[in-house]
Specification:
This protein has helices at about 1-10, 15-20, 30-35, 60-75, 100-120, 145-170, 180-185, 190-200, 245-265, 300-315, 350-360, and strands at about 40-45, 75-80, 85, 120-125, 130, 175-180, 205-210, 230, 270-275, 320-330. With about 375 residues, it is α/β, with parallel strands linked by helices. The protein has a single domain (about 1-360), classed as TIM Barrel (Alpha-Beta Barrel), CATH 3.20.20. Helix 6 (about 145-170) runs parallel beside helix 8, helix 9 (about 245-265) runs parallel beside helix 10 and helix 10 packs parallel to helix 11 (about 350-360).
Length: about 375
Amino acid sequence: MIRRALALLLTFSPALVAAAPVARPYAGADGWAAADNAAIRGATIGPIENGYHPGVGYGSPPFERTLAETSAQGGTWIALTPFGRVHDLTGRGIDPRFEAPSSETRAAIRASIREAHARGLHVFLVPHLWVESGDWRAKIDPGSDAGWTAWAASYRSFLLGWAHLAAEEHVELLSLGVELRSWVTTSRAPSFVTLAREVRKIYPGLLTYSANWDDVDQTIILGELDVVGINAFYPLADHEGATLAELLAGGESVRQKVHALAERWQKPVLFTEMGYTTRPDPAVKPWEWPDGMKDVKVDEEAQALAYFALLQPMTAEPDFAGFFVWRVYSDPDDVSQEAEWGFSPRAKLAGHVLKDAFGAQWSADHGPLP
């Protein structure tokens, strides 16, 4: 009975959303406006983060099933996240190997892009960093001018390698980085701007950067982007047991922040990551990583309500370019990648909310619905 009531409640109203203002072109984002696409309805497909699971990663037959599921749900984009390894926060360099030789990873990414395009899906390529020490990449600090110069050179090699591949495979959107707060919100930012302009000479598609939700306003490089990207793990409430009305008010507050940011920069805003874990009160501290939790109660309804409370206001915002849900995996049947209370919405109530959102008319839709 509870699930039936939830299904009735979580309905996106195309009539209401369609009545919102029509999206307009953005200065500095001509590529987006000229594309005349519907807003991004995306899913991040994570790699298999364990070398003991061969044959089920990017480009594999299981990956093709994940693409099929994404399309069937109404998704129109996928995000791929090739990782480079960083030992710790001293930023001594990036190892391009991630559970496989870098040549194999690149071949798998190429195959994945081609398979997605063959299915009519657009691709967002997100070169990502995995910190072996378990620390947050946003805190990388080489500690000296010489250290920063060496770190920037290593990151340049990493990013340009993926920019070349993105250009060769006609990837539609590329992220310059993910949560690099210590670089792009500080006096070190000009060196990142130089790198962004170098990427422009290689890659002709649209550029974004995946800022963290709480530092995007301090991010200095937004002027270099076509689309402002946010890893949108916004809290929707500050206390446990929040009602749906309180969660929706939190979602409306996020919408207002997105609108103000887009108007300030005259560029659409994209949620490069968005998601909630499958546990009680996931919208209070949505950034908490499931691997660090123990004895957690699985709560599909709480996850679904959090999805709905964020997405319902956002789909009515004309400055909102869309989102990529965080995340599903390249093998849809592999449950070893995260705990049952993790972020994945697959085969959960949140998956139904996601499908409903994908199928609704959004205020930011430039062209016909997919």
